[in-house]
Predict the structure.
Amino acid sequence: MVMAASCTASAAPGHKGATASAGSLPVNVTVLGATGSIGTSTLDVIDRHPGRYRVYALSAHRSRQALLDQCRRHQPRVAVLECERDAAWLREKLLEAGLDTEVRSGREALTEVARAAEVDVVMAAIVGAAGLLPTLAAVEAGKRVLLANKEALVMSGGLFMEAVARSGATLLPIDSEHNAIFQCLPSEHRGGLARHGVTQLLLTASGGPFRDWTADQLATVTPDQACAHPNWSMGRKISVDSATLMNKGLELIEACWLFDARPEQIQVVVHPQSVIHSMAAYADGSVIAQLGNPDMRTPIAHGLAWPERIASGVEALDLFAVARLDFQRPDDTAFPCLRLARQAIASGGTAPAVLNAANEVAVEAFLDGRLSFNGIGELVERVLADRPLESASELEVILAADERARHDARQWLGDS
Ligand code: NAD
Ligand code: MG
């Protein structure tokens, strides 16, 4: 497997995109995927620090009413929607409200607000492969990139981390587990974990809503059941991924790239309370954990202000209320997606992009009632087995592999 030689999620303070401290200009933030779960939590944190952050651009796919409400509150310079018809609607509404936000549409506009010269920080919170190009544009422009969109890194890990190293971008993980690991590692951890005495990363998983279910019980799971996560409130795609454990598989791949780790250095630990967000184990027997209430505003505030700390709106953890912390091994038989993700990162090349694309098609089909819950893993396994492995050294090859995997998955579903 190809590993980025010297890339980690760390960057020295003072890198481009550093945050403003009291008295300096406000930090300009673009929020890609502003109307989603991570996007709205980001705006909630920003709202708590008037004068420190300024919203430069907000984007949404189709939720124009939600974007209008956000534009009224945050008055960004630019707002982006997918299609021109929605953009025209928003333009008219903003004009009526006397606001001069420029409204744009299309994918190129997303890339432009990610790399605009005025922007310091980009929150990458689009869901799925659609986030890859704008997130990569922010990295290439050397921004501080707050990475929630794990699919972008899963698809293009090697290229992505090379671009971080080349541009001097500051990449900060927002996924709660990776943000926790980042906080548990030494501030400078380039050159592989072993060099810094780290023996293992312990990636915690809630186990989702069906933690102790058997494959037979899982066969009848409905989309609403799968989206009712016990501890976290999230978008529908990641909620399904959490229920199948594909989310943990994607996170395992994400951790390999962010922390220059080999897959066997990462142990997934099911921890139903979701209070420990992940851990790093050291050669001397120490295990350092990051704890907190399960609320994404903590990692978001951490990424926005790092290396400083700011209020996020999250309550302090009440250990007496938590009372106990449980741990168990993941069940690879009932939840094959974690095993498939391990297989994909071990194969390397375009395999993680194929895994991700097949999973996106499968989850959409499951949410539409066209595929069973257990069918998600079956479909991903089939597409992974059939697609030839290619080197992922060029973006075009990765995007083509993504496209072909989607085509194969749709054909398997009988869609085309
Ligand atoms: P969500 O579905 O709630 O929101 C997604 C956002 O992206 C919305 O603003 C939507 O309009 C936009 N979007 C959707 N499809 C798009 C497209 N094709 N083009 C442009 N924009 C599009 O998702 P979420 O739960 O906020 O998750 C966002 C990302 O963050 C995902 O990659 C997810 O894995 C990651 N993440 C989320 C959480 C969480 O707690 N929600 C935690 C960790 C990581
Ligand atoms: Mg996570």
The two ends are 33 Å apart (CA to CA). The chain has three domains: 27-173, 183-322, 348-413. Residues 74 and 80 are 14 Å apart (CA to CA).
